Amino acid sequence: xxxxxxxxxxxxxxxxxxxxxxxxxxxxxxxxxxxxxxxxxxxxxxxxxxxxxxxxxxxxxxxxxxxxxxxxxxxxxxxxxxxxxxxxxxxxxxxxxxxxxxxxxxxxxxxxxxxxxxxxxxxxxxxxxxxxxxxxxxxxxxxxxxxxxxxxxxxxxxxxxxxxxxxxxxxxxxxxxxx
Length: 179
Prior knowledge:
Elements: E1 23-39, E2 44-48, E3 54-58, E4 74-88, E5 104-107, E6 114-131, E7 136-141, E8 146-150, E9 165-178
Antiparallel strand pairs: 1-2, 1-4, 2-3, 4-9, 5-6, 6-7, 6-9, 7-8
């Protein structure tokens, strides 16, 4: 099975500053699979996609509640990513929350097994190119790395210009839930 897509709910960032207008957008991809086999001793689960393609995955020791999985369960995976950015003038202080970039794990406490892994990163970039057809922005970070990010709506980059300094917060999350 090709890479399974998963997602989580974004907590909207408090990025509003009086003189700045924050922009944000998000995308979610959802995929389901049916558990067709389980090897409890080896901690292997075979998942079948709706098109019949199967893949067996190993569930490490950090997968709590593994023993609750059953053949016939449906696994729903959601992949979520979002970008929030604020255009600011050079020398203007940052207004976006600091992020560590370290992934965090949140286990579900509901009736069935579930978990979310998320990561959030913040960077300041100098805009080098704007592609309004995609729409996307390419920029250079302060430490010299070139980054590109999609912007979900064209209107979110209206007024953005090459050489603008932009703070971006990129959020990525994966949620898996068993039904």
